[in-house]
Amino acid sequence: MKIVNCKTNHMTNPLGFHMEKLVFSYTVEDAAGKFQDLARIVVSQNADCSNPVFDSGMRSDIDSLAFSLDLELKPYTRYYWTVTVRTDAGEEAESEVNWFETAKMDDPWQAKWITCDSTNPRHPIFSKQLDITDVGEARLYICGLGLYETYIDGEKIGDEHLTPYCNNYLKWLQYQTYDVTEQLQNGKKLEVLLGNGWYKGRYSFDPRRNQKPYYGNTWKLIAELRVTHADGSIQVIPTDESWSVSRSKITASSIYDGEQVDATLPDEPPQAASACTEELPPLHARLSTPVCVRKTLHPIELIHTPSGETVLDLGQNMAGIFRLRVHEPKGTQIHLWFGEILQEGNFYNGNLRSAKAEYLYISDGKETVIEPYFTFYGYRYVKIEGAQDLKKDDFCGLVLYSEIPKIGTMKTGSALVNRLVQNVEWGQRGNFIDIPTDCPQRDERMGFTGDSQIFCPTACYQTDCLAFFRKYLHDLQTEQEALDGAVPGVVPSVGIHDSCAGWGDAACIIPWNLYLFYGDKSILEEQFDSMKAWVDYLAKVDGDDHGWRNVHQNGDWLALDNLKDGVAATAGATDTGFIASVYYALSTDLVAKAAAVIGKADEAKAYAALHEKIMQDVRDEYFSPNGRCCINTQTALAMTLYYHLLEHDERNGEALQKKFKDNDNKLQTGFLGTPILCGALSESGMNDLAYELLLNEDYPGWLYEVKMGATTVWERWNGLLPDGRISSTDMNSFNHYAFGAIVEWMYRYCAGIHPLPEAPGFKKILLKPEINYQLKSLQAEYESAAGTYRSAWNVLDENHVEFSFSIPFGCEARLVLPHTDMSPQTLQAGEYHFSYQTDKPLRRTWSTHDTIEELLENPKTRAVLASTVPGSDRVPSSMHKQSFRSLFLQIGYPGAKDMLDTLDAKLAKVGAW
Ligand code: BGC
User: Fold this and answer.
1) From the CA of 673, how far away is ligand 1's center (Å)?
2) CA nearest ligand 1 atom 7, residue
3) Any residues with Cβ below 6 Å from ligand 1, and which?
């Protein structure tokens, strides 16, 4: 037995993070027992956990998902902790020693903000000569604006990029803490290089704002080097006017436009730093998890394009920077451009809009390895000019993303689906650079609230991301404070304050989802005011006449069902008032539920009543008295079913099925409909149709993109046309994770791993896999907050299937198997295997013995009929209940026997489900 995944506030050994609350979590593996009987948590300031400052003693109430501890913490202090678990089988184990370290907490800064001439384009290097001996421990507390990198004697401190990260800089500034004990032993010089970033560079898609900095115009730095000498005395070296400023060779840096370095520039004489006179928002210990180079990609091909360019192909669309070895004569300009696709074999970056996404290096004649400091690119292809005899190995792509450990894996019997899953994982990597962004390449890269709530459950299946989202939610809440509870479409808002349904609702949906996945109610406690403020804001706007329905709404963004002159209008065809009211109801429900979880009974009651009222309003306005949804779109019907807008709803299920039938079983949904579409189908007895949508290889569908060579998820269903041409350039990213939300459905329904709100954090799950003959097999592994679940199935033949599951220690699964009369059962920790004959054939076969109705219902069989027996699709509906064969034999159709045999041969090949 061993204890693993020991986390403090959902991070492993966090250094210098903001710790409003202290929450420990862990999981148990390889135990003979099934449940935790007792546990003990010990916290100490000593690495051997002696003299504890807290000792729970062996207790039966220690929650492995979230043991919350009210401990008065001291600043600048490392705490160590262990957990011991005894199981119901009497065995006992103790974890390794874990730690967390506080930052400055409320201790005032001795350092001053310092600045320099910020009109000089050469990026500044602030420095301080050091004369420190006898270093016991040393920490650096630091924030530099826009972005900073720190060096001791030329060696970079830490492995993070893009610090101090992206947040609402008007409200709070994050500082990081580094352990510099080692580097300081003989360190003589501390240097901090500053760049522009989100703070001082252009950032925002709004043309009124994106040409100039929104948050600040000057470079600034604050830092304290705190040394604890061997004798216990403390020395602090703060930033002040004694620091000097020299100039680097970086002459331009921008999140969107890239970076320029002129290595030929002469050194400039250093100047003294000056004290900053500007009033700055409060400094706050970091919440952002580290952005690091987490993968290195080597080019798969060096291409000489038809138009004569030199282009490297990384084989994978990604976000990050690069490393390039160059050795060119002095003055040579080495120029790089980044793009996601090729067009007619040539380099292409027209879809990046105004983002220049380039890199320019002017060589000083020396051999060097270049790597950008203060930008990142979303790219697969890089065009390079100025480097003679370039070889593939001179270049590598450095993939940057936040710390989001991978915890989910999914493999199926389809290579295309497997590639889709990988694409969604890459989509997350590319868009989890400190904030959840819409895309990493063009002139946006912003924290769109809608996109992030849509993708959040998928992110939680794929990765451990509570700490990542906690920072985003903090930012969201700070934006709301100035907006009377409204939640902007993007967070940080960069001054764009419009709110709309499905986007602003991120305020409620994300915290609830995190609670569901992690079972830690502290996230609800933290976000409750924000959740409530959003719903209160909606209530105000909605007033007595449903004003929220009339506000400008994004709607079912990028749906395909609202064609105007052959081009789909971005809002889709689903009534935006309906969407607005349904989301209003959903958010209100979540406020009520969150209130109940955190013990606010009165609020729980009040918001539950408001929820019921909004639901009634929705029914009154958008449903006929007999319960027909009056908004006849795939998305509205899917929302009706998935969100249980009506209690007993068969007719809207039938309506959705018909809607698909009328559209050849092709989807038309946008950002809001797509994530719930397959779930709505699986829940309503149309699981086969859900799989058909997943497995459809034609436009529009997930596998269309995969077949077109996508390595991430596209923003638009038709990003590329079948001939490989880009469909439009104004809003067409090839790395947009929203439609990747299908992966949530795959973990929940295909693998059957459903979280349950009554036992959040996967302590108890519903295990209800939905199988499919065509997909053949699936293996999913999910390291949930409570432990690792495995769910696998394998279709052996048309009538036989086998399953294997593992349920982690301390957990329970309510198992419901498909196509069997076996009753549901409860599984406890352990391994399970089932194999049985299904109660109906798994493969739907077709023949002329089927009724005409059945054959006409399915688009594939309908097409076979139409091509083999022209006119057969016009048989009067009064005859539809007869079998095709009996009708055609009855009417004495010439050559009926042969025709029926030919038809049977063709129908046998359809065998879709
Ligand atoms: C973004 C989207 C976003 C949308 C809505 C787009 O520009 O890329 O993902 O949700 O705008 O405003």
Assistant:
1) 15
2) 731
3) 438-439, 444, 448, 450-451, 489, 554, 557, 731, 736
User: What atom of ligand 1 comes closest to residue 503's alpha carbon?
Assistant: 10
CA–CA gap between residue 732 and residue 793 (Å, rounded): 37
CA of 438 to the centre of ligand 1 (A): 7
**Per-residue tokens: 363:** 């060589």
**Mind listing the pLDDT tens digit for each residue in 308-351?**
999 999 999 999 999 999 999 999 999 999 999 999 999 999 99
Ligand 1 centre distance from Cα of residue 862 (Å): 38
What distance lies between CA 186 and its chain's CA centroid? 42
What are the pLDDT digits (tens) for 153-189? Answer: 999 999 999 999 999 999 999 999 999 999 999 889 9
Q: What does the DSSP 8-state code read for residue 750?
A: I
pLDDT at position 207: 66
Share of the chain above pLDDT 70, in %: 99
The conformational region for residue 789 under phi > 0 = left, psi -120 to 50 = alpha, else beta, is: beta
Using the predicted structure, report yes or no on whether residue 211 has a pLDDT greater than 80: no
Question: In the 8-state DSSP scheme, what is residue 844?
Answer: -
Distance of CA 858 to the CA centre of its chain: 36
- Kindly state the tokens that stand for 525: 């406690």
pLDDT for 400-453, tens place per residue?
999 999 999 999 999 999 999 999 999 999 999 999 999 999 999 999 999 999
3-state secondary structure of 693: helix
Contact 317, 430 (CB under 8 A): yes
- Among the listed residues 512, 557, 554, 912, the one whose alpha carbon sits nearest the alpha carbon of residue 738: 557
Q: Report the amino acid identity of residue 257.
A: D
Q: Is the peptide bond before 164 cis (omega within 30 degrees of 0)?
A: yes
Give, in order, the Cα–Cα distances in Å from 599 to each of 61, 484, 587: 18, 25, 18
The CA 814 to ligand 1 mean position distance, Å, reads 39
Atom of ligand 1 nearest to the CA of 738: 9
Structure tokens at 732: 């067409």
Query: Would the pLDDT of 55 be above 70?
Result: yes
| Atom of ligand 1 minimally distant from the CA of 448 | 10
The reported pTM is: 0.95
CA torsion angle for 711, 717, 718, 720 (degrees, to 10)? Answer: -10
CB atoms within 10 A of CB 366: 10
CA distance 859 to 857: 6
> Which protein residue's CA is at the shortest distance from atom 9 of ligand 1?
438
> Residue 282's pLDDT is what?
97
Average pLDDT, the chain: 96
Distance from the alpha carbon of residue 595 to the mean position of ligand 1, in angstroms: 31
Report whether 600 contacts 578 (CB < 8 A): no
CB 747 within 8 A of CB 410: yes
Rounded Cα distance, 20 and 8, in Å:
12
The pLDDT score that the predictor gives to residue 911 is 62
**Distance in angstroms (rounded) separating the CA atoms of residues 652 and 624:** 11
504-537 pLDDT, tens digit each: 999 999 999 999 999 999 999 999 999 999 999 9
Tell me, in angstroms, the distance from the centre of ligand 1 to residue 494's CA.
15
- Which residues are part of the catalytic machinery? 444, 715
- Atom 5 of ligand 1, residue of closest alpha carbon: 554
Alpha carbon separation from 424 to 286, 362, 399, 429, 753 (Å, rounded)? 28, 37, 15, 9, 18
Question: Three-class SS of residue 46?
Answer: coil
**Which ligand 1 atom minimizes the distance to the CA of 731?**
7
Mutate to test the pocket of ligand 1, among 435, 444, 455 (most ligand atoms within 8 A of CB): 444
CA–CA separation, 636 vs 690, rounded Å? 16
Where does the pLDDT of residue 910 fall: very low under 50, low under 70, confident under 90, or very high at 90 and above?
Answer: confident
Residues 243 and 126: beta-carbon distance below 8 Å? yes
The pick from 256, 438, 554, 570 for probing ligand 1's pocket by mutation, whose C-beta has the most ligand atoms within 8 angstroms, reads 438
Please give the C-alpha separations between residue 352 and each of 200, 306, 377, 436, in angstroms, as whole numbers: 21, 22, 10, 18
